[in-house]
Amino acid sequence: MSEQAQPVCARGLVKRYSEVLAVDHIDLNVRAGDVYGFLGPNGAGKTTTLRMALGLIMPTEGSVELFGRDPIREGARALQGVAGFVEAPRFYPYLTARKNLELLAALDGDGARGRIEEVLDVVELSPRAKHRVGGYSHGMRQRLGIAAALLRRPRLLILDEPATGLDPAGMRDMRELIRRLAGEGITVLLSSHQLPEVQELCDRVAIVDRGRVVYEGALADLRRQGGAGYRLRTTDDARALAIAREQAGIERASGGEHGLTFDAQEQHVAALSLALARSGIGVLALTPELATLEDLFFRLTEGGLGAAGAGAGAGLGEELAGRPDGRPRTPAGALEIG
Amino acid sequence: MSSAALTPPAAAIPAVARFRRPSVLTIYRWELRKLVAQKRTYLGLGLIVLIPLVFVIVENIHQRAHRGGESVFAQEITQSGLATPVLMLTFLVLFMLPLVAALVAGDIVANEDGNGTLKTILTRSVDRGQVFAAKALAAMTYAAAAVFVSAAVATIGGVASWGFHSLTSLSGTVVSAPEALLLVFASNAVYLIPLLAVASVGLLLSATTRNSAAAVVGTIGLVILLYIVSGIPGLEGIRPYLLTQQFEAWQGLLRTPTDWSPIVHSAWLCALYAVPSLFAAYLVLLRRDVAGG
Predict the structure, then answer these.
(1) Integer CA distances (angstroms), A286 to A116, A228, A278, A316, in order
(2) For A219, A242, B72, B154, which has the most beta carbons within 10 A of its beta carbon?
(3) What angle do CA A68, A71, A74 make, to 5 degrees?
């Protein structure tokens, strides 16, 4: 395992099932310390990509390396320091939770057996450890899946929809655990449909749609890219709107009951505020409105403005519309295409 | 959920940690534990324990003076308890023991694939080849256990009912009781050779079909097909090469002098069935996508 090697580096991953192209030349770059969100609609190819990353299925083309090792060519050796689960974690229903963990610890070696009590405590399953997994609820199995992953003392944790099926308290606990694990230095690759969860936990994301990466990069960059929108309240909104419409760099200015909204780069906002001041209009509030991840997700995966509508972040919709194939342009440091 | 320190500090993690794979023996032990924990395991074993017991009980209730036209061991059933396991072997070899062996061999990969636990174990520190080897060993251990448990129950039941006496061999010579006991278990060991070939076919079907029922039924279907083929007039020439014909090779041990030729023939012929099946199953498991569950 190379110290410098990226936790996950996928290049040109393709998976084809006869006529169906499930994954279409996906590149992923998960760096050490990332909490990396892997987002996409159902059937976008997320789980297939994770299966390839764990060596469970063979890529049709391309390769994936975990800490510089290819799980297809090197098998279990490439999974050293890697743990997680794809889809729901699965266990032997006729064995107790502790027996399941003992089995997995035996398959891990490296003193994993000695950590069973510890990981059961972490996921708060110690009181139910003697019960057969067949009687466990979905949430308990998810927690047991996390426990099984932690047995391996991973440096990279791959979690596929870990909060699916959990109640709100379970989801909160899962988020808290992931945050703490990330705080301990574990790199986390998190596939999720829970956009607020990703927004809260992840610093970098890849968004996939129809087997392709439509965005990969920092979540903050994506939100900046998607939403240079502002909301303005002044002492005279009607005149302010007229001035804004005249001002260079101010786009999509529109008035409303609670002031006006517009899109602009920062330097143009500064110019607008000076113009308003020169006209004797006082600024009561000027607030940037970043697009939510949900807005951006739908715009990227549905190829239009989607739920975001006009106003905040409309620029990304134009980015998408800027190419004949509907895929985003790639200005420096902004949108990339897998 | 709480979080203790589950990972060593980054500085404590060696950049190139020594990778130590668990041994096949470790995985094999866990395969056996899984078998022990499943009800299905006892269904098969229960059947092959029940049949000799029922036989002994019925024979005790309805003792018949004359057994004209029956095999030498059937005629001898009340003369020596050691005739019982031999007679049971004659009956059980046809379908029951192949069925019991197929129950586990056909299920051992497909069941895990269907339940998704195959991907659970393949994301640990074990390679597919190791998992396959452990599963194949476990399936064959189960087949061996079925044969010898059946023999032990029949022997104990027979000896308890009719005593530990000498036995007449297929050649008509009298074999002392201790030697007969040895021959009984050696016969079961020889029968195990074709049964392991059946288990190998079951493993292949288990790995390829990914469906337990299909693999079990397919294995037994093959046995039935071979029986049918062996009964078709005009196909006598291929009969010695059918797997089902090898189910009777053990009888060579019960002749005086011992007839080794069917046993040797059975050994190499069964290897021709078993080795390609196992190799193909291994390749299938090695190369296939594991996405079940």
Answers:
(1) 54, 13, 17, 22
(2) B154
(3) 85
Give contacts of A115 with chain B, Cβ < 8 Å: 6
pLDDT of residue B9: 42
Cis amide leading into B257 (omega within 30) = yes
Chain B contact for A167 (CB, 8 A cutoff) = no
B112 within some domain: yes
- Type of residue found at A281: I
Q: What percent of chain B has pLDDT over 70?
A: 88
pLDDT tens digits for range B114-130: 999 999 999 999 999 99
Q: What is the token pair recorded at B121?
A: 């174990």
CATH topology of domain A228-289: Alpha-Beta Plaits (3.30.70)
Q: What are phi and psi of B15, to 5 degrees?
A: -60, -40
ipTM: 0.86
Amino acid letter, A192: S
> What are the residue ranges in chain A where pLDDT is below 50?
1-2, 304-338
- Domain range for residue B281? 35-287
* CATH number assigned to the domain covering A8-217: 3.40.50.300
- Local structure of A262: helix, strand or coil: strand
- pTM: predicted TM-score of the whole model, two decimal places: 0.82
Chain B residues whose beta carbon lies within 8 Å of the beta carbon of residue A94? 37-39
**Within an 8 Å CB–CB cutoff, is residue A152 touching chain B?**
yes
Instruction: Identify the closest residue of chain B to A89 by CA–CA distance.
Output: B120
Domain tally for chain B? 1
d(CA A277, CA B146): 94
Name every chain B residue with its beta carbon within 8 A of the beta carbon of A58. 287, 289
Record: contact A1-B17, CB cut-off 8 A: yes
pLDDT band at B63 (very low <50, low <70, confident <90, very high): low
Question: Strand A156-160 vs strand A82-85: parallel, antiparallel, or unpaired?
Answer: parallel
Residue A46 tokens, joined: 């997320």
**In the Cβ-directed half-sphere of A180, how many Cα atoms lie within 13 Å?**
17
In chain A, what are the domain boundaries? Answer: 8-217, 228-289
